[in-house]
């Protein structure tokens, strides 16, 4: 048995050796650590991989920019620092105002990430991943009512469809159906009243926003309470949420982030409608997958607070499905895939564009004239394409019942019509009104395109909707 004094020396030596071992970062596992409790030396081992890896670092609070991060795949460097930076094998991962940074390269023989502690201790997160978990797209606002918002997560897992060929050129069915991914990316929304929060002043990282949520009276909304997955367009699958219990005429700030990721999306803003707004939201229509907005209909019966395909008035869905099916039959009289009518578009493009136009004009979108709110503090410019519809007026879509009160309708974007005109063969006879004549009577003109005949782009906004809650025309 060792003497007590010698035993203490052995323990001290083993502790020193252990302290000098770099901590191993595990692939796809987030490491939470404080710069006040870094290992000695403050280094972390990157696993070896034959494929490129993304090494990401995120700050969990505001900082003084004095903490620095150095990364190397040079096996001869055990503790990379400023003298080692060559921008090839050794780099500094810079953290801009967003509070996160990432670098991707090969780590055939592994690598090392080192931390140079700054003057102020800060909580940080590190992650080694096969994908860039800091590349976050915006969530998408569908629409709002006085106390609801219908929103979507950023897109993921885009559906790759095989281009059909002649003679087996099959067009999509009138009533679409898709199989959701078996292991979808989970997303969480963070929602706060803009005037009551300072979330946009924080690092745009998941840990910073989660930590600040209680103090900012923010609500975390997980995908587990969403309305499920939805494929609204070719961008990919999205979670969709119907948020209830909001306050009328209130500006909200919204972020989205992946569970297990480090960075959040950029913020999206939206404003709820006035307390007298009485059009319910319509969503989840397989025959019109991009419709997710307020429509002039009576509220759904029962406990539902928004319309889906199951609660629409009788005849609405069947009529639209029939129109789409008949259009497909007519389009199929062309030998699609053999008789090329355009070097840029196909029969499938025509079918998709026609469906979007049909849905945009068949489901009028209720809206309100914008006014000044807490943010952005100015009236929306330019004003959207609105028209006032009187109570009891015959709807543009005759299968919809007349609405029982006056409302403002957001006109469809003329570009939605023009897109179908450009994508479809001329024998269909599909034509849109001309901007210099009657187009403004039934379409929003000059927002995306300039409004000059034949000119694509150069409109006053360049888009139908932005991330600040402004909506100028109904894209469908």
Describe this structure in words.
The structure is a single chain. This protein has 476 residues and is an alpha+beta fold. Helices cover 14% and strands 22% of the residues. The protein has helices at residues 4-19, 206-212, 316-331, 347-362, 414-423, 439-442, and strands spanning 23-24, 31-34, 43-46, 49-59, 68-72, 90-92, 100-107, 111-116, 123-129, 140-144, 149-152, 187-193, 219-222, 229-230, 238-243, 251-258, 268-271, 281-282, 293-294, 365-367, 386-389, 407-410. Strands 1-3-8-5-6 form a five-stranded mixed sheet, with no helix packed on it. The relative contact order is 0.11. Residues 6-20 have low confidence and may be disordered.
Tell me about the biggest sheet? Answer: 5 strands, mixed
Determine Rg (CA atoms, Å). Answer: 28 Å
Average of the residue pLDDT scores: 91
Strand content: 15-25%
The neighbouring-strand order within the major sheet is: 1-3-8-5-6
Write down the secondary-structure element order: HEEEEEEEEEEEEHEEEEEEEHHEEEHH
Structural class: alpha+beta
Continuous helix count: 6
N- to C-terminal distance: 82 Å
Helix content: 10-25%
Inertia-based shape: globular
Q: What is the β-strand count?
A: 22
Low-confidence stretches are 6-20
């Amino acid at each position: 048995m060792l003497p007590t004094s010698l035993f203490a020396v052995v323990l001290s030596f083993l502790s020193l050796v252990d302290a000098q071992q770099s901590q191993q970062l595990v692939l796809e596992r987030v490491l939470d650590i404080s710069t006040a409790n870094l290992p000695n030396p403050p280094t972390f081992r990157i696993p070896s991989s034959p494929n490129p890896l993304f090494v990401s670092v995120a700050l969990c609070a505001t900082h003084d920019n004095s903490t620095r991060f150095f990364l190397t795949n040079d096996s001869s460097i055990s503790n990379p620092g400023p003298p080692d930076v060559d921008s090839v094998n050794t780099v500094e991962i810079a953290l801009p105002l967003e509070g996160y940074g990432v670098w991707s390269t090969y780590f055939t023989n592994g690598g090392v990430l080192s931390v140079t502690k700054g003057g102020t201790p800060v909580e940080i997160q590190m992650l080694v991943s096969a994908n860039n978990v800091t590349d976050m797209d915006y969530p998408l606002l569908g629409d709002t009512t006085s106390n609801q918002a219908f929103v979507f997560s950023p897109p993921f897992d885009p559906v790759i469809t095989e281009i059909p060929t002649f003679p087996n050129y099959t067009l999509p069915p009138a009533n679409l159906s898709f199989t959701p991914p078996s292991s979808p990316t989970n997303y969480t929304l963070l929602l706060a009243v803009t005037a009551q929060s300072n979330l946009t002043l924080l690092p745009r990282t998941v840990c910073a926003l989660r930590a600040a949520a209680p103090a900012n009276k923010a609500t975390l909304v997980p995908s587990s309470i969403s309305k499920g997955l939805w494929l609204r367009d070719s961008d990919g699958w999205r979670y969709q949420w119907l948020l209830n219990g909001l306050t009328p005429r209130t500006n909200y700030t919204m972020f989205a982030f992946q569970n297990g990721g480090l960075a959040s999306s950029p913020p999206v803003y939206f404003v709820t409608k006035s307390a007298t707004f009485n059009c319910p939201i319509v969503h989840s229509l397989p025959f019109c997958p991009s419709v997710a907005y307020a429509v002039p209909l009576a509220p759904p019966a029962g406990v539902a607070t928004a319309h889906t395909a199951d609660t629409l008035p009788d005849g609405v869905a069947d009529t639209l499905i029939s129109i789409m099916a008949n259009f497909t039959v007519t389009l199929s009289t062309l030998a699609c895939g053999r008789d090329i009518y355009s070097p840029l578009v196909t029969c499938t493009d025509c079918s998709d564009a026609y469906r979007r136009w049909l849905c945009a004009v068949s489901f009028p979108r209720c809206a309100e004239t914008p006014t000044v709110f807490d943010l952005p503090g100015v009236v929306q410019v330019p004003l959207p394409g609105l028209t006032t519809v009187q109570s009891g007026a015959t709807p543009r879509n005759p299968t919809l019942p007349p609405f029982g009160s006056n409302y403002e309708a957001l006109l469809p974007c003329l570009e939605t019509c023009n897109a179908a005109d450009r994508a479809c063969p001329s024998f269909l006879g599909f034509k849109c009104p001309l901007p210099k004549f009657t187009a403004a009577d039934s379409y929003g003109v000059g927002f995306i395109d300039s409004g000059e005949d034949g000119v694509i782009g150069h409109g006053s906004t360049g888009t139908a909707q932005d991330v600040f809650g402004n909506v100028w025309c109904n894209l469908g």
